[in-house]
Amino acid sequence: MYKPSKRVLSACLVAGMIFSMANVKSFNVFAENEFESYDSSNVGIAGKVEEYIEENSSDDPISELTNGMVSVNDISADQPEAEDAVVADSTATDASATDASATDASATDADGVALAAELTKAEKYTQFQDRAICTAESKVNIRTEASTDGQVIGVIERGGICLVDEIDGEWTKIKSGTCEGYVASMYLAYGDDAGEWCANNGISRRATVTTTTLKVRESQDENSEVVTLIPEGEDYYVYGVTDEWTEVLIHDDVRGFVKNEYVDVKFDTIKAVSVEEQAEMDRKAKEEADRAWLAYLAEQEAKQQATMQAQGQTQIAADNQAAQQTAEQAPAEQTAEQAPAEQTAEQAPAAETYVEATEAPTEAPTEAPVSYAAPAGQTGVDLCNYACQFVGNPYVWGGTSLTNGADCSGFVLSVYAQFGYSLPHNAAMQSNCGTEVSLSDLQPGDLCFYSNGGGIGHVAIYIGGGSIVHAASSRDGIKYSAYNYSTPVKAVRILGQ
Question: Which helix (H) or strand (E) holds 71?
């Protein structure tokens, strides 16, 4: 079992013992006055625990009672003081009962805070110092009180992180996101145990560079080839961590190893979501679904109109051809009355009835389909503003869709297509387009290229300020990065060329 579970069990066992002794003694006082035949064995399981420990001659009755899960050494050294306090409270008069309860509450709060501090120690996984992780299969309610009767104010999902304020047996008081309340302790792992749980349950990690420039090597060897250089502050997806090395993803299928001492590795955790925040997310999701549906209907209607128009034009062409064939097959001799009539027929518009059939419907869609803003101009800044609208959309190998997924060159291809430029769907081939420029002379809209170890394997759009926008990887999708998040090997300028 996790150490926190053992500690909580120990704490609860001690609390049960203390509680039972207090209640047995106070109830015996009452029984002497009211029920002379009262038997203390009727107190319940807590009383039985006390009797077992008192009567057992073993050196460690606690271990025998719990099948070895908790030993006498796990019991807090200050148990006698707690017992004395309970005894004093049990003999208090009714007038001082309120004060005694207040004393009990303070002691309980102090114990809960102390237990939280003990359980949330993190020496190996410092990210979880004073914190816990949600280990539930899906998500857990956060309540206003340490009870299932408490109002639900939010939820924390599997892998969600929280700051631990106090642990009170079955409940833990936490803070996460905008939520502050109570979560069932059984769904949490604390401190270093939280880190161990994340490592064993597939929670992804990111490595942030903590030195000015860091070498990424081909293997876990300081003498191995340097794949690229990465800058301070940039973060990368982590494939694995050993005692000395961390394997990181640079871009696409390029990855390498960095020394642990130069990166800060943390698990990707999430925060709790309040009831209000969830309602707002649900509202936005519904609006997005409605817009997508309207866009789909508009697209289908446009296709139907195009089909009808194409069919009408085909019919008109067929009628014209048939009329022409009829005219060619007519007898050469014509009467004076016939000729003008046929000429008039030839000069008349052909098949006007079909034109009427291809007119657009009079009723327009109830709402225009949602689309990303079209390019406002032809400058590099205009191109960058357009490209940045798609940050957060997915990366798809071989894709060219700015909304549904694109790879690095597909993203560049589709953005530039909106400005009238046709580029190949390949980063290495795109590097041969336009005019090569110095990396020290980058302007918004320029393309930056990166090595895959054997040639050019990645492309991004420079947006100014030392940053790029690119379809980074299947892990990160379309995102912003520092232009030197990996060592750029070439830059070209296409706009205006």
Answer: none
Quote the pTM value. Answer: 0.57
Task: Give CA separation, 281 vs 152, 284, 372, in Å.
Answer: 17, 5, 21
* Res 63: pLDDT: 60
Q: Angle at which helices 79-90 and 97-119 pack, to 10 degrees?
A: 160
Q: Do 448 and 488 form a contact (C-beta atoms < 8 A)?
A: yes
Collect all residues with Cβ–Cβ distance below 8 Å to 126 and sequence separation of at least 6.
none
State the first-to-last Cα distance of the chain, in angstroms, to the nearest integer. 67
Confidence of residue 375 (pLDDT cuts 50, 70, 90): confident
pLDDT one-digit tens code per residue, 87-142 = 222 222 223 323 333 334 444 577 888 888 999 999 999 999 999 999 999 999 99
Distance CA 153, CA 390 (A): 33
Determine the Cα–Cα distance for residues 368 and 439; give it in Å rounded to an integer. 43
| Contact assessment for residue 52 and residue 61, using Cβ atoms and an 8 Å cutoff | yes
Q: List, edge to edge, every strand of the sheet that includes 273-274.
A: 188-190, 131-134, 161-168, 171-176, 179-184, 139-143, 152-157, 273-274
